[in-house]
Amino acid sequence: MLKQTPLHEMHVKQHALMVDFAGWEMPLHYGSQIEEHHAVRNDAGMFDVSHMGVVDVQGDWAYDFLRYLLANDVGKLKSPGRALYTCMLNEKGGVIDDLIVYFIAPTHYRLVVNAATTEKDVRWMQQHAEEYQAKGYELEINLRQDTVIMAVQGPKAIEKISQAFPQFKTMLNSLKPFRFAVVPIDASDFPTNLAAPFSIKEGDFQFIIIARTGYTGEDGVEIIMQKEWSVLMWTTLLKAEISPIGLGARDTLRLEAGLNLYGQDMDENVTPLESNLSWTVAFTPPDRDFIGKTALMADQKQGIGQQLVGLVLLDKGVLRHDQSIFAKDEFLGKITSGSFSPTLKQSIGLARIRVQPMSSMPPIERCEVEIRNRRLEAKIVQPPFVRRKKL
Amino acid sequence: MNKMPRELKYTQTHEWVRFEEDGSLVVGITEHAQAQLGELVFVDLPDIGIRVHASDEVCVVESVKAASDVYSPVSGKIIEINEDLAESPSLVNSDPYHDGWLFRIDPDDTEELNELLDDQAYSEYLEEDED
User: Considering the domain boundaries, does residue B2 fall inside one?
Assistant: First the structure.
């Protein structure tokens, strides 16, 4: 039995093609994946991403615990209202998951993790939390079951949300990337003609998190709210002409933006250094220990063997996961993610290839991808493939 | 599934076959197949002149999410391909039974044609498949 999000009925109403995604019944598209992709690049779209795990880490020891648990340093979060992208590693430096951590209060951090890895992540966190709890340190790990996450993305996302909620306009416009606001919301914040038929009554009141984060390469926000408010929120934003977008377009959008997909571009067998994510590993301050640090430092000293790069297919065809890459008949590595880029109208991909020895200068810029026993020419590039349009 | 032309024959792998006056066959994929695949972004057509066997993979249609093989319904020689698909693979989605045709084949053996399904049999096959 697949799990459903509180917005399930809304997707069905919008004629979504529902598919199994990591045990969740989720919308793949609402008719046209390619049109949805363009809607996010050129206008505004919204995604139900409630299948992702919301894990609260609370207590006096939350900060110390997370500094040890995560490869990026929550110490960089100077005040509540800031968020950080990070990997959670095993002892070998392999990536258990990638996630965003939100600093809500000194004793309250919130982690948003991938759907497919939620259970594994929580077990890992609890296992390490036990060491703290055994000493009598106050620390709680709590997987939330009552939240909905909506991502609203695109060059017009902020403008359209501001039309629906004029009271948030100033806040939204001043919210910088990777910052968030905890906003009180009640029935009167919604248009009155909408509030009536929903489960929200006058006087009901909630805090929602509005964060300037996303997974599309576009401007926009992610909104975390209690599930009771989600249908009303979804309906309000639909009225503001924000298109519903399925997970199909989410994948092509993130790939164009050069953002890794966990389980495909990285997993427990590779490190962030081999996944184009060195920038997310905080080796300073040197006195901070974190899980996987020793292994990563040893790797760095030895030299990294492989790297994640971008590929643009120059011939006609489509790059796909697991296709092999060659340079002059020498095997270089494999594609981790490949698809058709609706924006560029050609195929793009991420690939993990052998790091070129310093002697092989100039570095390899062209390679061949084996597709159905044929070799097609591709260009090696540094992602992202598509950059946000300057407005 | 509402529009399944009566004059065509079908395969269990969701190709359709149109009999032409000159004895050749035109092949494409069905409405059901295109709907399952989603929007096509690339069609990898066979080379003209190659010989294929019935059930050989002769062509690959790629949607945003995946690549799928198209099988030859019969043995024979590929004599024409739909060149328009190079620029407009989405013709297969918008008009699978006409402008979205894939290739033309000159069949070796007319016996094989008896194995193909008529619209009724294909329709029943789809219903069984859904159960």
Answer: no
Tokens 């030895």 correspond to A302
pLDDT for A390 equals 60
A32 near B CB under 8 A: yes
Contacts with A320 from chain B: Cβ below 8 Å: 66-67
Q: What is the ipTM for the molecules in this complex?
A: 0.86
Task: Give the type of residue at A181.
Answer: A
Q: Do B64 and A339 touch (CB under 8 A)?
A: yes
**Contact yes or no for B99/B87 (Cβ under 8 A):** no
To the nearest whole angstrom, how far is the Cα of A341 from the nearest Cα of chain B?
Answer: 8
Identify which of B42, B64, B65 has the shortest CB distance to residue A316: B42
Domain total in chain B: 1
Q: pLDDT for A236-283, tens place per residue?
A: 999 999 999 999 999 999 999 999 999 999 999 999 999 999 999 999
pLDDT digits (tens, 9 = 90+) for A274-311: 999 999 999 999 999 999 999 999 999 999 999 999 99
Q: What pLDDT sits at residue B112? A: 87
Kindly state whether A20 is in contact with chain B, defined as any CB-CB distance less than 8 angstroms. no
Nearest C-alpha neighbor of A124 from the set A105, A102, A143, A148: A143
Q: Are A317 and B42 in contact (CB under 8 A)?
A: yes
Quickly state the pLDDT bin for A389 (edges 50, 70, 90).
confident
Kindly list the structural domains of chain A, giving each domain's residue range(s) and its CATH number in brackets, ordered by start: 8-52+147-255 (3.30.1360.120), 261-381 (2.40.30.110)
